[in-house]
Amino acid sequence: MHPVTAEVTRRIVERSRASRADYLERMEAARHAGPGRGKLSCANWAHAFAASPDGDKLRMRDPAAPNVAIVSAYNDMLSAHQPYERFPAIIRKAAHEVKATAQFAGGVPAMCDGVTQGRPGMELSLFSRDVIAMSTAVALTHDAFDATLMLGICDKIVPGLFIGAAAFGHLPTIFVPGGPMTSGISNSEKARVRGLYAEGKATREELLDSEMKSYHGPGTCTFYGTANSNQMMMEMTGLHLPGAAFISPNTPLRDALTAAAPKRAVEIRDGGNDYTPFSAVIDAKSLVNAIAGLLATGGSTNHTLHILAMGRAAGIQIAWEDFHDLSRVTPLLARVYPNGSEDVNAFHAAGGMAFVTRTLLDHGLVHDDVRTVAGAGLRRYQQEPFLDDGKLVWREGPAASLNRDILRPADDPFEAEGGLRVLTGGLGRGVIKTSAVKPQHRIVEAPALVFEDQDDLLAAHKRGELNRDFVAVVRFQGPQANGMPELHSLTPPLGVQLDRGFQVALVTDGRMSGASGKVPAAIHVTPEAAVGGPLAYVRDGDVIRLDAEAGTLEIKVDPAELMRRERAVCPPAGHGYGRELFGWMRRAAGPADTGACALFEAA
Question: Is this model's pTM higher than 0.85 or not?
């Protein structure tokens, strides 16, 4: 084990000692209470399967017969979740084959950040994670289940399902992905047309035609944003069946993996021979594995929020410093768009998660001695699934990368360090993703241009006011201000100015996208401006220095002078689009460096 990986793990365990012990005690008590159906009155229990087929009714009369919960984020608007329409039937049939039943316990909302980017609905995006966690708890609170299957894949959905599952951590839980859509036009061509549109050199019709050729069928978007980072993370934590992440939907192998999930869930239930609850799979080591996988593959910055919140749900206290220190020793192994030109299908073909897992294990950068739903340590996840005469089996994944332009071993990486840094200084604390930022752009010192809304920056670009060196400060975008929306729509205009040779950077208390790209961006800055953080005192013309190499975020203004200034006033939260229903979440949300979650009491 690499000494830094071991030390980070040790300090997480020590930091979490009290909260983790309390969590495990509660999970053990829930386990010994047993499924509630054994304690329900006959009338109550009859309600739970009144609409079931006669064969299921006969089986469910036995309170000891296995019953598996399905919690799904299905809707047919999101390409990633449309395939889930077919999954319950596959799962029920497979459960019957092992003398069990499966019930659709509940659905959770699933919004698409790709649809809401730059729109008011994006202000609900982060908090949808917390709504999903609560919805998951509602689905499982009937207490009628021996195991759970979580059907979700995209940005806030997997973290929300995870947090909800943690509340029922005495139950075995398997995450069941849907897989990526097949590849469309190249990512470089998509980026080219977006850039032309930002410069006014392409029409909206040309842009829409390009986007439709990219996002063209069922499955996750194929760039390496938060959705596909989620799937990587579920593999690294051992909550997937091995190799499940990147098999395309509506294929025989995808269906076979879906059918295998309920069968395995029955095998690892309490009372079986290999009881493996969620609370045993998720611990400090498995979350360190998730962080290492994120860093090694150049994954989404959103997980510097999500992993903190997910850990807290299981009594594990993760800090940004853990990401920072692991990034210093975890090499960047993958170049997948936006960190490269190819998509996740090419990444999977080059060796994918099986190869990433193998090389990280071989170099002591992740823990093998963890529990997984597959019944073995993380080494099991260097195998990949395939069909042998129609039967699902696993074989060893490739020992060498099949395309070194996309995927490399840990002893010959694209970069010696992972693609994430923590920034500290006079403007607070934030994070930056450097894996897609060229080295010459990682240090920027320039005058500030202050915006209090992303639309103001877009308007300034259209007026030609950004043809200069500048650091765009977009404030009042934090969780308590307006729900911390992603600001991905700023990437094209800022990228245009970068390509014109100007020094350009973004500093914000909001989020960027999981597709954070080539523009250096200090994001998640905390304390946020809405609670009086330093960003509330910045003025146009203040010189800001963002140094990703040194890990600093400074303003060239005397601190005393800065704080003597009149504090900018946070605009009132917007109404419409349901935003008025989320006021309590904005008020309850913790800071970014604790996960920006509204579900936990302040530490």
Answer: yes
